Amino acid sequence: MKNILLMAVGLAVSASTVFAQTVRMGTEGAYAPYNFINDSGEIDGFERELGDELCTRAELTCEWVKNDWDSIIPNLVSSNYDTIMAGMSITDERDEVIDFTQDYYPPTASAYVAAAEGVDLEGGIVAAQTATIQAGYIAESGATLVEFATPEETVAAVRNGEADAVFADRDYLVPLVEASGGELMFVGPDVPLGGGVGMGLRESDAELREKFDAAITSMKEDGSLNELLKKWFGEDTQTY
Amino acid sequence: MFAFCQDPSELETLRWLACYLTTGVHFSFYFSFIKVLGILAVTAPVALAFGFLGAMAARSRFIPFSAIGKSYIAIVRGVPDIAFFLFFVIALDQAFEWLRHSYLCPDWEEPIRQGTDFIVCPAAKLPLGSAPEVVHEAYAFGLAVITFSLVFGAFAANVLFGAMRAVPRAQLETAEAYGMSQRQTFRRVLVPQMWVYALPGLSNLWQVLIKATPLLFLLGIEDVVYWARELGGTKTARFSDYPHGDWRMWYFLALLLFYLLMTWGSEKILNRIMLRLTKGQATAGGEAQRKARPA
User: Fold this and answer.
1) CA-to-CA distance for B264 and B258, rounded, in angstroms?
2) Is the CB of residue A168 less than 8 Å away from at least one CB of chain B?
3) What is the pLDDT of residues B226-272, one digit of tens each?
4) Within chain A, which residue ranges are assigned CATH 3.40.190.10?
5) Which residues 131-150 in chain A show a CB within 8 A of chain B?
6) Is A56 on the interface with B (CB under 8 A)?
7) Is the peptide bond before B127 cis (omega within 30 degrees of 0)?
8) How far B50 CA sits from the closest chain A CA (Å)?
9) In chain B, what residues touch A80 (CB-CB under 8 Å)?
10) Which residues are paired to A37 by β-bridges?
11) Residue B109 forms part of a structural domain
């Protein structure tokens, strides 16, 4: 009798340690179509749908957390959440601090958007979000960089004339240009930057990374990742 | 929310607005006002308590106490708020987890610091990895209150320290002449009289505290300014049923109104407290009150 009871307790304990671990997924929630807050106040977007699918495939329970972009990496390494899915490009600098899965979005094209044709992209004033690869690129390009904490503000800076152009992921800019009714337009050539977008994890979390890596591979193989890409970024987007 | 909100693009302005202002995301916005008021309501008394302890320590005759009090005041006042909020909260959280870790998982062999990573055993995580999101939010709320209280406590400590010294020396000497002990003098004479000197400084702090709440988002708490920025930002028809341009100005105008109302309300309340505190005091205000009273 006593043994059965002990066994039951043991089972309950081991079961709770297996199933109770929730993977907390950190995101910014301000970067449509990658991630944004929808009308009902929930996190939505390409990465939300992809992340949920990855969690299902990896048999994990996941929960989404919003965090400011500025402190998104410090909070990951301090274990306040376990992953970052926030349209974060894989770069060498970031790779020194955290680890990335393989990319789930092909290397991105970044683009300039301005309010008028023929602005000076080499020597003018260009807006970009703080601590992004785009900001790093502009800083070295010779143009004057103005940084903003959120993507929204970078575009607003062009609208109100504070900056000549904004430099950001092309996919973020496309819906805004379409909706602006001719007020905003793409200028200059597209610039390929970064090593694609991947999921960020702590360097010590190799096990979790392998799980997500396998899930991404399986989604690439059966074509479901391509479907998601087309759904959120349009038919012409790059696929695997 | 309303039955007619099925297809917002068809609605005329008033109904559209009614639907727009009752979306789920707007309720998060309204709720954030309550959150901010809640933080203020908890932080103000806790910060005042920190300030009181800090001031008491700083004026203590026992040198270690006064050193602690004075360095608390000096260090916290000197560090920029934003640095404090970025660094201190993460450090505080890690300190809690490290304490729990050394108590709960003595057999854990892996190092806690692996490169930049901070890893404690799962049982020591705060909140536990399995805890529902509400607990995580409550924990973040608690950390926010502690951090705010520490920062504003240091300022309050300095104000109270000054106020305690502003009480006329003659009052204390009289108390001693009546044979009160030091502790009695402090409790019965010094503290009741110092508030009138402390109040202007404290009311300044209160106003600054009201406006410091946007720092909350650094701690993962979505405050009113975060939501105003998020909701006011451009929304395209692809990702929202309620597309609109850059409306941040309107949202920030609403915030302006909220903050003005808060300031106006607190001003009224503080004036009343001031009136009450000056009553019978040996200050210009107290003297004026005495003269205004019919003999």
Assistant:
1) 10
2) no
3) 899 889 888 888 888 888 888 989 999 999 999 999 999 999 999 99
4) 23-107+195-233, 108-193
5) 150
6) no
7) yes
8) 27
9) 93, 220
10) A43
11) yes
- The counts of H helices and E strands in chain B are 12, 2
Q: Which residues of B touch A155 (CB under 8 A)?
A: 234
Classified as helix, coil or strand, B6 is coil
Domain, as residue range, for B150? 3-233+243-290
Model-level ipTM above the cut of 0.85? no
The pTM assigned to this predicted structure is 0.78
Say whether domain A108-193 belongs to CATH 3.40.190.10.
yes
For residues A130, A136, A138, A141, the Cα torsion angle rounded to the nearest 10 degrees is 160
Based on the structure, what is the number of domains in chain B? Answer: 1
User: In this structure, are residues A196 and A90 in contact, taking their beta carbons and an 8 Å threshold?
Assistant: yes
Give the separation between CA B97 and CA B122, rounded to whole angstroms. 10
Give the chain A residue nearest B98 (alpha carbons): A78
Q: Chain A residue closest to B140 (CA)?
A: A80
From the centroid of its chain, how far is CA B113?
32
Which of chain B's residues have a Cβ under 8 Å away from the Cβ of A68?
A: 217-218, 220
Task: Write the DSSP string, B115-183.
Answer: TTEE---GGG-SS-TTS-HHHHHHHHHHHHHHHHHHHHHHHHHHHHHHHHHHS-HHHHHHHHHTT--HH
